[in-house]
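Thread amino acids onto this structure.
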């Protein structure tokens, strides 16, 4: 089963993101009950670093992530129902986490 990451953007109506206290409990409970939840967190302040040259700016619009296992991209997309950012009209970026082993 492939792994995916949901990246929550800070563009929801009313700014209901992971760090603003949205009602995440029922959504996380649903993902855990499905057996597909693999973790997640709000994303705080940080910096970009590189060995040489000027680093890019931090992606300030990202406010949190959730890692899941899903059978396909469509299966992952179906797990957005109930996500507070998604339900408030915000963007959730879905990215596959390819295996490198």
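Threaded sequence (101 positions):
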């Amino acid at each position: 089963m492939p792994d995916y990451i949901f990246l929550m953007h800070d563009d929801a109506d009313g700014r209901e993101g992971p760090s603003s206290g949205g009602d995440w409990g029922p959504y996380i409970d649903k993902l855990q009950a499905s057996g597909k939840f693999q973790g997640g967190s709000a994303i705080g302040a940080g910096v970009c670093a590189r060995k040489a040259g000027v680093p890019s700016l931090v992606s300030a619009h990202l406010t949190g992530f959730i890692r899941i296992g899903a059978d396909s991209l469509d299966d992952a997309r179906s797990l957005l129902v109930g996500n507070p950012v998604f339900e408030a009209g915000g963007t959730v970026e879905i990215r596959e986490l390819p295996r490198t082993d």
